[in-house]
Amino acid sequence: MNLYVKNNKFWFELENLTRLFFPNEKITVYKEFDNTEKPYVYTELSDKINVSVSINDFKMSYTAEKTDDNETDELITAQLLYKILCKHTGITQPWGLLTGVRPIKLLRRFYKEFGEEKAEKKFTDDFYVSKEKLLLARRTEANEKKILELSQPKSFSLYVGIPFCPSRCGYCSFVMSSIERAKKLIDPYVNLLCEEIKKTSQIANALGLRLETVYFGGGTPTTLNAEQLNRILGTVKTFFDMSTCREFTVECGRPDTIDEERLYALKENKVDRISINPQTLNDDVLIEIGRKHTAQQFFDAFELARKCGFNNINTDLIAGLPTDSFDSFKNSLDLIRNLSPESITVHTLCMKRAAALTTQGVTLDAENASQARRMLDYTQSTLTSDGYIPYYLYRQSRMVGNLENVGWSKKGFESLYNVFVMDETHTILSCGSGGVTKLKLYGTDYLERIFNFKYPYEYIDRFDEIIQRKNEINIFYGQ
User: Is the pTM of the predicted complex or chain greater than 0.70?
Assistant: First the structure.
């Protein structure tokens, strides 16, 4: 698909909008051109706003003028393009024009600018968000608000990245290393990670920052053995002021990495929230997506975690997985509901370009989208009736059906870190390869980022540069 953009600078937004309707196609953007080549989307700003689409035998054009000073050229162009593509494909998007990661943050901003009634009308009338998704957004925003109020001017959260997994799942595009390939890197990585944690703690303590939450992600942190976990967790507990910490999460992730020794290492270091993620409880689908564990291993891991005293457990499922049916997904969710975990996060499959499923030729179609929507509708109705609340929500590009990921929890068990990081509420200090420190100027939208090297071998080889970059934290707070 060719996207021609004349006299406007919002081509990125138009590209994302076009991709909603053509998720499997490469979209080539032309900002300078003499001729157009089919199939194409053409947009032009002049005295009027012109949008035309020519795809095979389908051709349609719309022209509009800006009649309201509150309307932007970008919004009007997107509205025209959306209407044309809806007519061409026969598809309406549940989130309308919205392509961003954080629709809840946008709704909250609109509430502040316009008031609730006008903000919600803007969502439905200007951005074409469905009433169902508006209701979900409204509920989520109300639940998030109570958590955001906990953050203070000196608040921050700590993220620690463990970039190792037993194997790579078919849908995964994260930078990680399988344990077989990276075994020699693990010990030096753990040693240096502890050094980075110490350095970060010294800076945070000297600045008088207040630690709110700690989150260990990856990768799969429990790929490490109990001794390695104990070293890293113990370093956090020893060098950071944990007296203000409200939540300490470790993303255990893969059930096949969980045993009693590791769980006790977490428990001894005051970890109070863990995540055990089967993604599906259909063994055939697990094989299809490259997960090297069975449904029974998930049940065993969950039971063991309860036995070891964990009373705040999250589980993840993915809607829209290849070969998964609505009935199979429903069965997975119902089995998890029977376990009554404190939170259930339901993701929608995201077809990242670097993921194995994408490179193997798996594509998205209208049937996938329709089925995924049924899965999420069932999730929302049943979890709501079970007393779970939606407490955070985010979206990604190339999601099946242009849907969303939602964290559902029992009241009082919302993950604070998930809300803080998705809202970009306060500073996130990150340690480990692939970590991105986000320095937030309190009371504003201003953010500065400090990037760690992505790959474990880079992290090890260039560790001195990472430590030097930590000084940017002092500079930021000094200003």
Answer: yes
